[in-house]
Amino acid sequence: MTAYLNALGIICALGRGQAEVSRSLFAGDCSGMRAESGWVPERVLPVAGVHGELATIPVELGQQSSRNNQLLLEAALQIEGEIRQAINTHGASRVGIVLGTSTSGIDEASRGIGHYLRENQFPGDYDYQQQELSAPANFLADWLQLSGPAYVISTACTSSARALMSAQRLLDLGVCDAVICGGVDSLCKLTLNGFTALDAVSNERCNPFSANRNGINIGEAAVLFLMSKEPAPIALLGSGASCDAHHISAPEPSGKGALQSMRKALASAKLQPEQIGYLNLHGTATQHNDAMESLAVANLFPAGVACSSTKPMSGHTLGAAGALEAAFCWLSLVHDRVPPHVWDGQADPALPALQWAQAAEALEKRCLMSNSFAFGGNNVSLIIGEAP
């Protein structure tokens, strides 16, 4: 059964809403990546944050107040009309919520614990609900007064890509008639210090697939799709997942798990590699990820495919990355353009050459693939395309 992507709400370092994000994305605009101190002791790091005021959590849901939920609310407000219409059409019990996250409200929790250690009590605005992994789905369900399935998937950097797969399954099984799906993650000290401890964070803007690449930049985002059986121009045509369980944090070096997820996505969409017009790479700019992904892509696309990593513009948004980059594919279909690959142009001679998307390059074929790879060898590939 076709899973149509009827509406898109998006907020990230590239902007708020489809128009702003599209302008920045297709221009290769990296101005949302800013050097900031205060995240990691004694380091100034580029981070891709959302600047300015965020939507206020309604008073009656105050105990669920967190930056993560504020970002989520920003994305939801952009498509509130379409969501309310789906609820009116299908009923509150037939609309589901599936989200991916890795941080939830952990930043509020860590500040609360810091306060507790200093003052021997938690601050007045601290509530355990803020840091529950299920918090984003619970908040959205409470705000919209929904009673259908509402849950969160947390598989690190594939979380929200898996959320889209799970949403389609709810439609296929007849459990839901519409699903609000996507992902949200907010900047916080825990993740920035964690990736720093792994020596994975770059002091400069990330440089994917370059001989000079030296690590990731962290970002934040919220992305929501309204997925349903109601025909729309754009759909989730296929998806594939694998888990090679090679290592707790390092990818399997030959790229076999990544290759398996891409092949499964093509098979589920009943497509051949040459029918893909653009590939959004996971492209974190770490030594191991880029090497592995290059091998997998060169193996699957021997004739080449236009591809790019968008992380120098958006940062790596962790639990939101899969949905964010699926949204970039959605926007590519709307605008008939592909996001350019932003880097220093210094190819790594140890890696197979890939076909880099250029600024203002037109989208020639109407099926696009997006890769997301995570800790533990967890791999997901999605195919977004023109609905049949």
From TrEMBL:
GO terms for biological process: fatty acid biosynthetic process. One of its GO terms (cellular component) is cytosol. One of its GO terms (molecular function) is 3-oxoacyl-[acyl-carrier-protein] synthase activity. Gene3D superfamilies: 3.40.47.10. Keywords: Transferase. Residues 1-386 form the Ketosynthase family 3 (KS3) domain. The keyword Transferase applies. InterPro entries: Beta-ketoacyl_synthase, Ketoacyl_synth_AS, Ketoacyl_synth_C, Ketoacyl_synth_N, PKS_Beta-ketoAc_synthase_dom, Thiolase-like. Pathway: Lipid metabolism; fatty acid biosynthesis. PROSITE patterns: KS3_1 (PS00606), KS3_2 (PS52004). CDD domains: KAS_I_II. Belongs to the thiolase-like superfamily. Beta-ketoacyl-ACP synthases family. This is 3-oxoacyl-ACP synthase. It comes from Pseudomonas trivialis.
